[in-house]
Amino acid sequence: MSQIISPSVLSCDFANIQRDVEMINNSTADWFHVDVMDGVFVPNISFGFPVISAIKKHATKPLDVHLMIANPDQYIEAFKKAGADWLTVHYEACTHLHRTIQVIKANGMKAGVALNPHTSVEVLEDILPELDLVLIMSVNPGFGGQKFIPHALKRVARLKELINKTGSSALIEVDGGVNLETGKQLLEAGADALVAGSFVFNSPDPTQTIQDLKAL
Questions:
Q1: Which one of the listed residues 35, 64, 192, 212 is annotated catalytic?
Q2: Who's near 68: CB < 8 A, 6+ residues apart?
Q3: pLDDT tens-digit readout, 105-142
Q4: Active site residue 73
């Protein structure tokens, strides 16, 4: 399987968001990665429902929505209505993770769980068969453009072992500091999907940069 490339629209030009959505539509990218932050779970605030709905209106590819928010359960239905196809919640933000996953699936979305850099992948062992995706954060969540944390490579490899052991079909996605060098290392460690924000949107030719990631 060719790796999934999910450009992070957090790094796009908000004054030209439709232009950047069309660029992703016309590129070899597979998903749109949409980071949602509430200023509580992480020290930053990003998109609300109107922006997600606007992206969905123009997007021709699935919306891969990553919730960096406290109490995600109360908004699951609203994110479905806004256009999320994949909905990922943080392990650290969910008291009743199994129930949260069930609600995401009941609303017709694929269910993912994200892990902060300090959280062991072992915490997901029991629930892996229920998941469609695990998102490994290779930076501390909250801001784009951070430096890649190398320990993420070991975490991806260990998670791959657990997925195989439990018979899970969950994809491994990685977000943070992804470029051609780290992307290649992550794929070799077992990652299935790469999120890239500033590396794509700050490049001279974002379409070509996406193609380069796809070709790794």
A1: 35
A2: 35, 36, 37, 38, 41, 42, 90, 93, 114, 141, 142
A3: 999 999 999 999 999 999 999 999 999 999 999 999 87
A4: no
- Cα 165–168–169 angle (5° rounding)? 135
Does 108 carry a binding-site annotation? no
1 touches 191 (CB < 8 A): no
pLDDT digits (tens, 9 = 90+) for 149-185: 999 999 999 999 999 999 999 999 999 999 999 999 9
Annotated catalytic residue: which of 30, 64, 175, 212? 175
79 has binding-site annotation: no
167 is in an annotated binding site: no
> What residue spans define the domains of the chain?
4-214
Buried-exposed string 79-104: b where 16+ CB fall within 10 A, e elsewhere: bbebbbbbbbbbbbbbeebeebbebb
Which of 74, 52, 70 lies closest to 62 in space, CA to CA? Answer: 52
Confirm or deny that 8 is annotated as ligand binding.
Answer: yes
Two tokens at 79?
């994110």
Q: Is-catalytic flag, 20?
A: no
Measured between alpha carbons, how far is 114 from 119 in angstroms, rounded to an integer?
10
Residue with tokens 């995600």: 72
Q: What is the pTM of this model?
A: 0.97
Alpha carbon of 108 to those of 36, 87, 103, 111: distances in Å? 19, 10, 9, 9
From CA 60, how far away is CA 39, in angstroms rounded?
A: 29
96 annotated among ligand-binding-site residues: no
CATH of domain 4-214: 3.20.20.70
Structure tokens that stand for 156 in this block: 């991806």
